[in-house]
Write a structure and sequence with these properties.
The protein contains five helices and nine strands, in the order H-E-E-E-E-E-E-E-E-E-H-H-H-H. A hairpin with a 5-residue loop joins strand 5 and strand 6. By secondary structure, the protein is mostly loops. The longest helix has 20 residues, at 760-779. The strands form two sheets. The chain has a five-stranded mixed β-sheet with strand order 1-3-8-5-6, with no helix packed on it. The protein has a four-stranded antiparallel β-sheet with strand order 2-9-4-7, with no helix packed on it. The protein is 7% helix and 9% strand.
Length: 786
């Protein structure tokens, strides 16, 4: 009963709760604003405020995610609710229903920049109130946002706030011409990759910055040299145009473009001249002209155009030509610069000299001549072929000697020369080629005598034909005069020092004097230089670079007439002739030997050559008569004490050097003057290689090896069994120190009959047997034997 009343009371209390008025978020139009990441709260119930609307701003691609927590259902009944997300037109994007307390998530993706609405609603589910509280927390996921709605998410859009459809250099930026490259802007320049041609959809890059696009034709204004700046516009765009006439420079090696570009392709034939660009006949003269009168014949031909001050216009533009003097670019067969005559252009000296017309080549096949004003067939050019020495005299043309008189001696000629090769001479009575005019060139000094001399005087006799005249009573020989000092030698004529050797130093000249100004009679090394000893070799002249042999060719022994050369420079002359001073027996090897022979190698400098010195590196020894390796000089190093003994007997090395040593132990055999040890130092055992000394004189050697070793080297003795050479008083072969008992024991094994110990065992056995028998008898009570 009490429980029923309690329920009724609660119901009445609930029905008396006032219903709140509707808030401002009950409709989309009045929806409250949610803040990204911030929690907002509200409450709804089925009988009053059933619905709440919220809104949040989102951009295309954003994920609008809402976390909604509800609580506090009624005592007698739970609650049902619904929530959903809507676009600004009221279209439901997603929704879900729920009941009871808990946290739920709901999300939708924004399809444009707009407000997106969240609705939460209490749904009636029984008699009692369906009221609940809620918290909503929005979260915008912006990883796929496209702020400017141009189809590129902000993460991939280089212009987030500006719509655009560029895709090549940047994504999503304005692209006016629609070629995929964005328009330049304050933060994005052409050098960074923007469209260099924003109004031309066929071009976008300009690598060299010359305002011509990199794309080839049919793109607009394609750059013929995309990697190199250029301003050509006529034959191709954007290539080097040195003279700025619009025509690009030739590029035969593809230096500026991908393929070669030749003049034949349209390149500028005159890339350093802005008045010319085409050369139809390829003769290096341009088609353009500067004389307006030429237009009558040239206009309409398609060849060239009038250009003020055009450089070297081609007078014959359709025909290759190389003329440059009278007119440009016409045929010039001989290449002298003057064009060949033709029917409109001839050679006529009168108009040519007056107004420079009709100046064609008078000699079209002679490159050295082109004019002939006296029309005698010889050209006016004095440096050319067959030049006219008299260009205004048709009867003369040659003047060999240049004296103003012509070589033509015909009867009708005037200005004739009777001596055409010499302007200062005209007569030669003796016919030797030298003129008789003494004031003229090369006057004949012997007018009435034929001669060929021409050095000292002209036209006189010259026996050897060297150009120097023979001496005569009025013309003395050199050095007294100027005549030929050697009238019969064609290569010599002067002799300044008068020593009989000529001064001419030319290759092949006869006996050229090497000391031209110094008298001398040398002839071996050089001609005509001082030779003190008269052996033919000249004295050295170091100050002039003429050194003595072997450093030079001069006399190495200026005061010795028997010697002059010393090839090895050791001070001994090379002349081996009888009577020559100290001839060098080793001419090509320097040496100081002087005892056995001169000038050979003497390593130890003892005066004997290495080849004659038995001891080439010992200055104190040189001879070894017996050949035992020890020198004969008793005052030298390791002198031979027996210099004449036979080597076959041995060679001593210790007590004395080089004496007989039969046993070859190093100690010499004794002789009358060299006694054996101990009286002397000689070998006491000359036939025993292991012994040589015996200081106690007992016949046993002091060396402790071998069969004759002395065990007591300082005491004489005869022992030979236990020790050798020790005292043996009883002469039993054992040393006194060995002892008598030890000696007899040792003798038992070697000579039993000589030792008392040989008979000792039987005696001992006999005594022991006797004692044993006696002892047995006493034990048996018998009598003791006495």
């Amino acid at each position: 009963m009490r429980a029923g009343l309690r329920v009724i009371a609660i119901f009445i209390a609930l029905t008396l709760i006032p219903i709140p008025a509707a808030s401002a978020d009950d409709t989309m139009a009045t929806a409250a604003t949610l803040t990204d990441g911030a929690t907002s709260s509200g409450s709804v119930d089925k009988d009053g405020d059933t619905t709440d609307w919220w809104k949040i701003e989102a951009w295309t691609g954003d994920s609008v995610s809402l976390s909604v927590s509800t609580c506090c259902h009624g005592t007698f009944d739970g609650y049902d609710g619904q929530m959903g997300i809507y676009d600004s037109a009221g279209n439901e994007l997603t929704s879900t229903s729920f009941a009871n307390d808990g946290t739920r998530n709901i999300a939708a993706t924004a399809t444009s920049h707009d407000w997106y609405f969240f609705r939460i609603k209490a749904v009636p589910d029984g008699w009692f109130s369906s009221q609940f509280d809620y918290d909503v927390t929005p979260q915008l996921q912006t990883g796929s946002r496209d702020t400017d709605d141009d189809g590129f998410t902000d993460n991939n859009d280089d212009c987030d706030d500006t719509p655009g459809d560029s895709t090549s250099d940047r994504n999503g930026c304005p692209d006016s011409d629609g070629d995929g490259y964005s328009d330049p802007s304050s933060g994005w320049s052409v050098t960074q990759g923007a469209d260099a041609f924003p109004s031309d959809n066929t071009q976008w890059h300009d690598s060299d910055g010359d305002d011509f696009g990199d794309n080839p034709a049919p793109a607009t204004n394609p750059d013929g040299c995309p990697d190199f700046y250029g301003h050509s516009t006529q034959d191709r765009n954007g290539c080097t145009d040195t003279d700025a006439d619009g025509w690009s420079d030739p590029d035969p090696t593809s230096l500026w473009s991908d393929t070669p570009w030749y003049i034949s392709d349209g390149a500028d034939a005159f890339f350093q001249d802005n008045t010319q660009w085409h050369d139809t006949d390829s003769d290096s003269f341009g088609d353009n002209w500067a004389d307006m009168s030429w237009g009558v014949l040239r206009n309409g031909t398609g060849i060239g155009e009038f250009v003020e001050n055009a450089t070297q216009p081609d007078f014959c533009p359709a025909e290759w030509g190389n003329s440059t003097e009278d007119r440009f670019g016409c045929v010039d067969s001989d290449g002298d610069g003057w064009s060949n005559p033709d029917m409109n252009w001839t050679y006529d000296p009168v108009p040519c000299q007056s107004d420079e017309t009709h100046c064609a080549d008078a000699f079209p096949n002679d490159p050295t001549q082109w004019a002939d004003r006296d029309l005698d067939g010889f050209g006016d050019n004095p440096l050319g072929t067959n030049p006219d020495a008299f260009p205004d005299n048709p009867t003369q043309w040659l003047d060999t000697d240049g004296d103003g008189y012509g070589d033509n001696t015909a009867s009708d000629a005037w200005q004739a020369d009777n001596f055409s090769d010499e302007p200062t001479q005209w007569a030669d009575l003796d016919g030797d080629g030298y003129g008789d005019n003494l004031s003229g060139s090369e006057p004949d000094s012997c007018v009435n005598r034929i001669g060929s001399s021409h050095h000292d005087r002209f036209g006189c006799p010259d026996s050897d034909g060297d150009g120097y005249s023979n001496a005569d009573g009025n013309w003395l020989a050199h050095p007294s005069g100027f005549g030929d000092a050697f009238p019969d030698e064609i290569t010599q004529w002067h002799d300044v020092d008068g020593d009989g050797f000529g001064d001419n130093q030319e290759l092949g000249a006869w006996q050229s004097d090497s000391c031209v100004a110094t008298f001398g009679k040398s002839y071996r090394d050089r001609w005509g230089c001082p030779d003190t000893d008269g052996d033919g070799s000249s004295n050295a002249q170091p100050e002039l670079g003429w050194l003595a042999n072997p450093f030079g060719e001069a006399d190495a022994f200026i005061n010795d007439p028997t010697q002059w050369e010393d090839i090895d420079g050791d001070g001994f002359g090379d002349n081996q002739a009888a009577g020559a001073t100290s001839p060098d027996r080793c001419k090509e090897t320097p040496g100081t030997s002087r005892e056995d022979r001169h000038g050979c190698t003497d390593s130890d400098n003892d005066g004997y050559s290495d080849m004659g010195d038995r001891f080439p590196y010992d200055p104190s020894q040189w001879a070894d008569s017996d050949g035992d390796g020890f020198g004969d000089n008793s005052f030298g190093h390791q002198p031979d004490s027996c210099p004449f003994e036979e080597v076959s007997l041995g060679v001593s090395l210790i007590d004395r050097l080089g004496c007989p040593d039969i046993d070859r132990d190093g100690y010499s055999d004794p002789d009358e003057t060299w006694l054996a040890n101990p009286e002397g130092d000689a070998d006491s055992f000359p036939k025993n290689r292991l012994q040589w000394a015996d200081q106690d004189g007992d016949g046993y050697g002091d060396n402790n090896m071998g069969s004759l070793r002395d065990d007591c080297p300082t005491e004489a003795g005869t022992s030979s069994i236990d020790l050798q050479g020790c005292p043996d008083s009883n002469s039993d072969g054992f040393s006194d120190s060995y002892g008598t008992i030890n000696a007899h024991i040792s003798l038992m094994s070697e000579n039993p009959s000589s030792s008392i110990f040989t008979f000792l065992p039987p005696i001992i056995i006999f005594i022991l047997t006797f004692l044993f028998v006696t002892a047995l008898r006493e034990e048996d009570g018998g009598e003791v034997l006495e």
